[in-house]
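Page 42, continued from yesterday. The earlier attempt failed because a stray header line got pasted into the input along with the sequence. Redoing it now with the clean sequence only.
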Amino acid sequence: MKIAVINFSGNVGKSTVAHHLLAPRLSGAEVIPIESINSDDREKEGALRGSQFDELQDELMTLQNAVVDVGASNVEDFVGLMRSYDGSHEDFDLFIVPAVSTAKQQVDTIATLRALSDLGVHASKIRLVMNMVDRKQDLNRGFARLFEFHSRSDVFSMDRDAVIYENPIFEKIKGFDRSIIEIRDDPRDYVALNAEAMENGASEAEKAHIRQMVALKRLASRVTTELDDVFKVLVR
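This time it went through. C-alpha cells are written below.
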C-alpha cells in the first residue's frame, strides 16, 4: 500500500501520522519525507522539481508499502507536479489528511481536500484524521468547518472515530529514531535498570535516559492501542 500524508498547512502532525500511525502498521513500510528529496539542492531550496518527482515515482514502484510525508514547504509543488504528471495520483492507494481544530489550519485543510479532488482523486481515497484532539473537546465544535464542509460535499471521507488524542508521548518521543510500537515492545525493564543505575552510581545523563524510557514505555501501551483503532478506521 502507498499512502501520502498531506496538508497545505504546517503544524498538523503529518510526520507523527506517518511515523507513528501508518508506517509501523504496514509491513516493511518505508517513510519517504518529501523535504529530504531536495535537501542538497541549495540553489532552489524548498522547490520540488520535476526530476525529483520522477525519483519519487521510481522509488514508489520498487516498494510494496510506503508512506510519503509531504512537508509543508513542498506540498504545493507536490500537488502541482501530480497535476503535470497526469494520473500520478493513482500511484497512491490513500491520501491521509491530518487536521487540527485551529481556524487557519481548517481553512488550509479544506483547500487541500479540494485540490486532491480536483486532481481526480476519488473521495474514498481521501481520508481525514482529526489530530491533537483534547479528550474534553467537543468534536462538532472544534472541527465545525470540516464537518460542515463534509456535509455539503462529496470530495473526502470523514469518520468520527478517526481521532488522535493529545498525549505527552508525541512530544517526548521527538529525537528518538524509534516508533511508539518499538518503544512499547522494548523488552528491557527500565524500572530495574533505574535501580541498578542508582546503586552503581551511573552518570546523570544515563539515569535521565532511563527515567525517560520508563515514562515513554508507560505512555506507549495505551497510545498504541488507540492508534491501532484509528488505523483500522482509516486503512480499510
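Notes: The radius of gyration is 19 Å.
Reminder to self: strip header lines before submitting.
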